[in-house]
């Protein structure tokens, strides 16, 4: 190889994928050309460009201070967003570099220096051919060159983690940039993982736990465990504190080191490993907090394996402060890590990952008081850590501490990810007496501190899995906050709000505003072949959270004592003012679910139901009295007299036939209006005697029972039409025919249960009527003429018999169009007579129909899709057992969108 060949050999310059790259070189050294060649234009922040932005002249040196203020601002914004940033400036002065190193440290990224050490003559020649630099004073380049030469040996001492020096134009031309992944960035590893909490030398318990997790141990010739692997390829992740206090720290290290070396495990350092590593390097440390036991055990190990200590030292030095795993959904560290530090690299990040943060105070045991960072955590990634012993591992704001004090006589705990399943084994004995009792110091139990106003205040953007980012306007959030804070049920029991539903496209059929033909055509155009037509019950929307008993509700939802769930409206308000009535409905539902075998089949102790609760008058009595009944009463008071007067006038020979005909039509329409809403109203109790069946104290100590039943639910009908979620999974995507089949079993089981109670168990309440109502339905093929005609006729028969109408949904529970956009989850197709309630008694007249057919449905459809996506997100978060604030974020957004202005008749 010739000298010329040597000079053109490519040189690779490693740059971390998140770092602040500082180009250093005199003017004319080719920094801007180098930056354009190796980095994206958006990654480069140039001092010349910033000078031009503030002064309209890139060579105006008087604008330099403002230009660098702008440069630092832009670079800081990029680093805060996690973007690789390159600073294109001379940076030959230590003061200029110092401010950039400080900027990198503020954002916990690595500063990297790339020096272009180009000869002075070459720089001068390049500047001479540039019109904007031709008049540069002769002393500038020599001065910058001297400053550069003085800086070369001090760059690493200044704080640059990597320094690349390119000497001469040939090396600059031959350089290549290689972007390297940060050591803590393992997002490409998706597991599944078994994350194991603090071990503290408890080797025997670790072996037991690994066995319970399904790992097969490999032992050396002396029978000591030196590796373990899972037959299904799972990866163990250790959160640190492998050593100290326990009986066999060398045995734990041998096993964990073997698993890491074989690729069966990952490990982050704990503060005890950090201290042991410093001891092994000969640093002066206090041999306290269990280190003395580990040192003694290592000394015994040294007699048999003199190199073991060196291997431990190298292993500890290789450990990375934390790992970001599973596409960014999981962060593992020792002492916990706020979101702003995830994936970052600095001494501050490492210190927090090892030791956590303290308030500066000490408790009564002389130990530092830990800052409760997890109470304020709002990150998307789950943070799994250890360090602070707690009696029970529990989720707190999407974080969980797995140190359950095995060495202190507690348990050793692991978390299966992504299953979020906890697996633990008891300690064999108390190996080390704790300084303080094990307590869970998080306020509010497993749910953490109460919801924060900042979670919902102001303009919000909610990330959803099915529709991306959904914005909530500030004024809508304020309206929702008013409702939620004053009227809503306990947020712990409010895991979902149903979305609004758009009507089908306006019909052109004579006499109809809505017609099934438009619904079938719309779904056919969206590529949906099979739809299900569900009877639309005329009542009030109700969501029911049903737990097997109040113990389940207390354990899973942190419900108050004696509460086994909740029944609430579509705006989150309690459906009934009397909690006893709510309890009766929940008990009836739980019994029906149990009799149908759904608790076992769905492997759950709770479920969430979407339903209609009837009669309409049960919840809408005020609306009926003030709005609808008033119209009917006015027509009955006025129209008979009008008709009598006109008929008398006609009898006297006055020509009023046209007017009389119109008034008779108005009377018919008014009667039809009254009949339309009355069919959805019926009494549910005797106001003089309370709820039917409810025992009341009577004079002389007698107790009587209401005349029509025994549990106070007579006349109330609940029609569930979807099981939304159960323990561990959302069922929102389950096909609707399967959903309704399970609900049919509940309805049937309630009847069987009631009959059995009547005939066998006299002391069990019997029912005059059944609470649960079935939902009739019909599947329609949108591409088959006969099937569509059958669907239309089914709707006509349903509405002719007094039904409200139907809801048309894709048979599959969750459908996207060919372009990936969501299909409307359902459209309502309301009957001709029912719409009289909505649009007024005379809406069917041709002139009124023509006017009403001009309906703007775009906003309503958009609103329905956004609320649907938020509802799905809430159900996913609820099923995944995410923290309350995460579930409530999506629920609150649905309520906020409901305050967007839209035609209420749609």
TrEMBL record:
<protein>
    <submittedName>
        <fullName>Polynucleotide kinase-phosphatase</fullName>
    </submittedName>
</protein>
<dbReference type="Pfam" id="PF16542">
    <property type="entry name" value="PNKP_ligase"/>
</dbReference>
<dbReference type="InterPro" id="IPR027417">
    <property type="entry name" value="P-loop_NTPase"/>
</dbReference>
<dbReference type="InterPro" id="IPR029052">
    <property type="entry name" value="Metallo-depent_PP-like"/>
</dbReference>
<dbReference type="GO" id="GO:0016301">
    <property type="term" value="F:kinase activity"/>
</dbReference>
<dbReference type="InterPro" id="IPR024028">
    <property type="entry name" value="PNKP_bac"/>
</dbReference>
<feature type="domain" description="Polynucleotide kinase-phosphatase ligase">
    <location>
        <begin position="709"/>
        <end position="901"/>
    </location>
</feature>
<dbReference type="InterPro" id="IPR041780">
    <property type="entry name" value="MPP_PrpE-like"/>
</dbReference>
<keyword id="KW-0418">Kinase</keyword>
<dbReference type="Pfam" id="PF13671">
    <property type="entry name" value="AAA_33"/>
</dbReference>
<feature type="domain" description="Polynucleotide kinase-phosphatase ligase">
    <location>
        <begin position="479"/>
        <end position="685"/>
    </location>
</feature>
<feature type="region of interest" description="Disordered">
    <location>
        <begin position="688"/>
        <end position="711"/>
    </location>
</feature>
<keyword id="KW-0808">Transferase</keyword>
<feature type="domain" description="Calcineurin-like phosphoesterase">
    <location>
        <begin position="192"/>
        <end position="390"/>
    </location>
</feature>
<dbReference type="InterPro" id="IPR032380">
    <property type="entry name" value="PNKP_ligase_dom"/>
</dbReference>
<dbReference type="InterPro" id="IPR004843">
    <property type="entry name" value="Calcineurin-like_PHP"/>
</dbReference>
<feature type="compositionally biased region" description="Basic and acidic residues">
    <location>
        <begin position="692"/>
        <end position="701"/>
    </location>
</feature>
<dbReference type="Pfam" id="PF00149">
    <property type="entry name" value="Metallophos"/>
</dbReference>
<dbReference type="InterPro" id="IPR050126">
    <property type="entry name" value="Ap4A_hydrolase"/>
</dbReference>
């Amino acid at each position: 190889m010739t000298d010329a060949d040597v000079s053109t050999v490519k040189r690779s310059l490693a740059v971390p994928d998140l770092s602040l790259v500082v180009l250093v070189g005199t003017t004319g050294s080719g920094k801007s050309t180098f930056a354009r060649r190796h980095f994206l234009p958006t990654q480069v922040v140039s001092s010349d460009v910033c000078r031009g932005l503030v002064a309209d002249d890139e060579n105006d040196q008087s604008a330099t201070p403002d230009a660098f203020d702008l440069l630092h601002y832009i670079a800081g914004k990029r680093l805060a967003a996690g973007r690789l940033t390159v600073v294109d400036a001379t940076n030959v002065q230590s003061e200029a570099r110092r401010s950039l190193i400080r900027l990198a440290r503020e954002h916990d990224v690595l500063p990297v220096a790339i020096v272009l050490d180009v000869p002075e003559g070459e720089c001068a020649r390049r500047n001479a051919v540039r019109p904007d630099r031709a008049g540069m004073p002769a002393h500038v380049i020599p001065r910058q060159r001297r400053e550069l030469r003085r800086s070369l040996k001090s760059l690493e001492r200044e704080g640059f983690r990597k320094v690349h020096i390119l000497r001469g134009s040939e090396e600059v031309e031959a350089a290549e940039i290689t972007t390297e992944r940060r050591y803590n960035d393992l997002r490409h590893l998706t597991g599944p993982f078994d994350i194991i909490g603090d071990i503290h030398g408890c080797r025997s318990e670790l072996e037991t736990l690994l066995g319970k997790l399904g790992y097969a141990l490999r032992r050396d010739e002396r029978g000591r465990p030196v590796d373990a692997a899972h037959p299904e390829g799972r990866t163990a992740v250790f959160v640190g504190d492998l050593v100290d206090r326990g009986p066999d720290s060398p045995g734990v290290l041998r096993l964990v080191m073997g698993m890491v070396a074989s690729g069966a495990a990952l490990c982050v350092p704990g503060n005890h490993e950090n201290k042991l590593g410093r001891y092994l390097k000969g640093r002066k440390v206090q041999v306290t907090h269990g280190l003395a036991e580990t040192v003694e055990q290592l000394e015994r190990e040294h007699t048999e394996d003199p190199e073991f200590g060196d291997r431990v030292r190298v292993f500890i030095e290789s450990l990375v402060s934390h790992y970001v795993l599973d596409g960014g959904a999981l962060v593992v560290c020792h002492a916990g890590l706020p979101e702003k530090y995830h994936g970052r690299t600095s001494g501050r990040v490492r210190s927090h990952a090892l030791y956590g943060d303290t308030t500066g105070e000490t408790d009564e045991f002389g130990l530092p008081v830990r800052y409760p960072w997890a109470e304020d955590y709002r990150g998307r990634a789950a943070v799994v850590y250890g360090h602070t012993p707690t009696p029970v591992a529990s989720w707190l704001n999407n974080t969980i501490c797995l140190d359950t004090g095995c060495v202190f006589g507690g348990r050793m705990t692991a978390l299966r990810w992504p299953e979020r399943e906890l697996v633990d084994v008891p300690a064999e004995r108390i190996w080390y007496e704790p300084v303080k009792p094990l307590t869970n110091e998080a306020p509010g139990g497993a749910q953490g501190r109460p919801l924060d106003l900042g979670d919902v205040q102001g303009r919000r953007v909610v990330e959803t899995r099915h529709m991306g980012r959904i914005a909530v306007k500030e004024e809508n959030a304020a309206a929702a906050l008013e409702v939620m804070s004053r009227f809503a049920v306990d947020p712990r029991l409010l895991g979902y709000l149903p979305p609004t539903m758009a009507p089908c496209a306006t019909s052109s059929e004579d006499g109809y505003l809505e017609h099934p033909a438009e619904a079938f055509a719309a779904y056919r155009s969206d590529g949906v072949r099979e739809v299900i037509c569900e009877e639309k019950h005329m009542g009030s929307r109700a969501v029911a959270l049903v737990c097997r008993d109040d113990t389940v509700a207390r354990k899973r939802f942190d419900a108050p004592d004696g509460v086994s769930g909740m029944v609430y409206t579509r705006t989150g308000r309690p459906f009934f003012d009397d909690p006893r009535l709510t309890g009766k409905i929940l008990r009836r539902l739980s019994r029906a679910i149990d009799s149908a075998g759904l608790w076992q089949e769905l492997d759950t102790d709770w479920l969430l139901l979407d339903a209609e609760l009837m009669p309409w008058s049960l919840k809408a009595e005020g609306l009926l009295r003030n709005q609808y009944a008033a119209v009917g009463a006015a027509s009955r008071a006025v129209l008979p007299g009008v008709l009598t007067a006109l008929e008398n006038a006609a009898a006297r020979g006055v020509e009023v036939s046209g007017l009389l005909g119109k008034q008779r039509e108005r009377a018919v329409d008014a009667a039809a209006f009254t009949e339309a809403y009355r069919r959805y109203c019926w009494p549910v109790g005797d106001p003089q005697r309370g709820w039917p069946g409810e025992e009341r104290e009577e004079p002389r100590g007698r107790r009587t029972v209401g005349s029509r039943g025994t549990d106070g639910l007579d006349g109330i009908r609940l029609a569930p039409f979807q099981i939304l979620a159960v323990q561990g999974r959302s069922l929102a995507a389950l096909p609707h025919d399967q959903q309704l089949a399970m609900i049919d079993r509940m309805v049937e089981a309630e009847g069987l249960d009631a009959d059995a109670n009547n005939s066998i168990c006299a002391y069990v309440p019997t029912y005059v009527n059944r609470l649960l109502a079935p939902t009739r339905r019909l599947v329609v093929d949108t591409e088959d003429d006969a099937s569509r005609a059958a669907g239309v006729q089914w709707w006509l028969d349903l509405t002719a018999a007094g039904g409200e109408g139907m809801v048309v949904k894709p048979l599959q529970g969750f459908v996207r169009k060919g372009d990936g956009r969501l299909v409307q989850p359902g459209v309502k197709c309301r009957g001709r007579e029912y719409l009289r309630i909505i649009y007024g008694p005379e809406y069917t007249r041709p002139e009124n129909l023509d006017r009403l057919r001009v309906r703007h449905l775009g906003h309503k459809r958009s609103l329905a899709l956004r609320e649907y996506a938020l509802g799905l997100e809430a159900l996913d978060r609820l099923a995944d057992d995410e923290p309350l604030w995460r579930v409530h974020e999506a629920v609150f957004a649905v309520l906020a969108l409901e305050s967007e202005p839209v035609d209420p008749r749609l």
